[in-house]
Amino acid sequence: MLFGLGRIRGGVHPDGHKADSARFEINSHLPLPDTLWLPLCQHSGEDAKALVQVGERVLKGQRIAAAAGRFSANIHAPTSGTVTAIDTITMPHPSGLPAKAIILQPDGQEEWIALTPPPDPFAMPQEELATLVEQAGIVGMGGAIFPAAIKLRQGRRFEIKTLIVNGSECEPYLTTDDRLMRERAVEIVEGARLVRYIIEAYRTIIAIEDNKPQAIAALQEAAANVGAIEIVVVPARYPMGSAKQLIQAVTGLEVPAGKRSNDIGVLVHNVATVYAIQQALIYGKPLISRITTVAGGCVGEPRNVEALLGTPIRHLFEHCGGLIATPARLLMGGPMMGQVLPTTDVPLIKGSSGVLALTRAEVNEHMPSPCIRCGRCVDACPMGLLPLEMARSSKQDDFDSAQDAGLRDCILCGSCAYVCPSHIPLVQYFEYAKGELAESRAGQQKLTYTQDLMAARKERLEAEAAAKEAAKQAKKAKNKVKKPRKTAEPAADTAEPASTTDNAGA
Ligand code: SF4
Ligand code: SF4
Predict the structure, then answer these.
(1) CA of 361 to the centre of ligand 1 (A)
(2) Which mean pLDDT values do the consecutive 10-residue runs of the chain (506 residues) have?
(3) Which of 20, 218, 354, 401 has the lowest CB atom count within 10 Å?
(4) Taking the C-alpha atoms of 304, 332, 82 and 321 in order, what is their torsion angle to the nearest 10 degrees?
(5) Number of the ligand 2 atom closest to the C-alpha atom of 380
């Protein structure tokens, strides 16, 4: 389907709450925390494998955990110091479940490993650049936490016509991308050129919502003399930052249900990811820090900080004016799609675009009441789904019907729940149903895998038995041929050699 340029289907206009944190420059000078907690899983795949021992001293930028599989990512020491433990910590996730992490005590020296940036990345083979991005441990920093190198390689496998650098940042409160674009526009433009070179895109667009005029101006200026990089302004409307919606708004094209953006020749990378790629390919720097928004009505001085990965969230609050009221809700990410945090004793990770401490008034909690079938959720859904039907089926554990109503295409953006006058926690139902389906799929995959293994074993054993039997038969046949025939006059056989010997001796 073709949409009018600049438009998306559905969507909502939540209060932005962006001004408080957007007005200050990024603070890149936070004091070092006493401890850094570095979870082995800060990406979409398997836990990375720790490469260090307790008691070992590590240097800033040193690889301390290795990617374990395609969707996993390397982890590097954010500063120099000593590994004091490899233990479980509480993850920044609503479950508060423990996860394994490398615990690092900074020594205050900030002693870097020797960095080895490539001399001229634009003269290197693209695959080698994707490998450097992989080695730097870069994941999608807009929330996807999917290793960035996979997307770069996909870009080379598919014919990518358009690269979209996503600077829309539509979640309320979050201003990390806004400040990054205002303050590091030249680096972002260079990063966009690098990604364009790697994936061989024909067209490169940096898309920004119209509520970020300073970021638009900074990027226009940075791109002015570079050529072939378009700055496209899109209307501020949630969830404009979602890849499929941004593609609709920028190109007018819709990614069909069940397909990915690269199927229609478009690749979307977040601005923070593009910046991290530029830092890796120009300066040889691995991903060891990120810019994050610290905001919400409970925060004394909301702003953006550039903090080391592994920094405890409480340390961020302490250095942003402290918590001036008891938060009604702590969030990692924005209020629409963020994760509720169980405590401030969790670390900043690669995907943390913001940490929010919200007051009761900001949380706006209501008791849910029955659905009045007003249809507002249907109008708000940017994916054209039937949220009320999906929620009803999910509630009844009827996951097939929920899928029929579009669950698979739901991006969990929360627009439906935002407009629901009955305050039904629609997204919670969808998360539950998706979780159950994923578990059942994983169980089915495991079963199929086990069945395949058993079938292969049976086949192997049968083949071995058949080979054994064939060898036995062959040996039997051979013996039959070799075995001397029993005759009626055995004495005649032995008599012959004797006469031969006699002749030889003559
Ligand atoms: S918006 Fe809420 S009340 Fe209205 S139809 Fe959807 S679920 Fe029901
Ligand atoms: S959460 Fe899912 S169903 Fe609700 S509006 Fe977003 S995409 Fe549609």
Answers:
(1) 23
(2) 66 92 96 97 89 98 94 96 95 79 97 95 96 96 87 81 94 97 98 96 95 97 91 94 92 86 92 98 98 98 98 97 96 92 94 95 85 93 93 90 91 94 92 87 79 87 91 86 56 41 35
(3) 401
(4) 40
(5) 5
Cα 50 from Cα 61, distance rounded (Å): 15
Measured between alpha carbons, how far is 442 from 428 in angstroms, rounded to an integer? 21
Collect contacts of 190-193 with beta carbons under 8 A, ≥24 apart: 190/278, 190/282, 191/165, 191/274, 191/275, 191/276, 191/277, 191/278, 192/163, 192/165, 192/229, 192/274, 193/122, 193/226, 193/229
CA of 353 relative to ligand 1 center, distance in Å? 30
385 lines ligand 1 (CB under 6 A): no
Q: Which of 248, 157, 256 is nearest to 200 (CA)?
A: 157
Distance CA 335, CA 356 (A): 8
> Atom 8, ligand 1: which residue's CA is nearest?
371
* Rounded (10°) CA dihedral 118, 121, 123, 126: 110
Residue with CA closest to ligand 1 atom 3: 371
Please give the distance, rounded to the nearest whole angstrom, from the Cα atom of residue 355 to the centre of ligand 2. 23
162-167/203-209 β-pairing: parallel
298 labelled ligand-binding = no
Is the backbone peptide bond immediately before 94 cis, with ω within 30 degrees of 0? no
Which domains occur in the chain, in start order?
19-106+114-318 (3.40.50.11540), 366-454 (no CATH)
Task: Report CA torsion sign: 242, 245, 246, 247.
Answer: positive
3-class SS of residue 497: helix
d(CA 433, ligand 2 centre) in Å: 13
Atom 2 of ligand 1: nearest residue by CA position: 420
Query: Which atom from ligand 2 is nearest to the alpha carbon of 387?
Result: 3
| Shortest-distance ligand to the CA of residue 395 | 1
Ligand 2 interacting residues, C-beta cut-off 6 A: 380-381, 383, 385, 387, 410-416, 426-427, 430
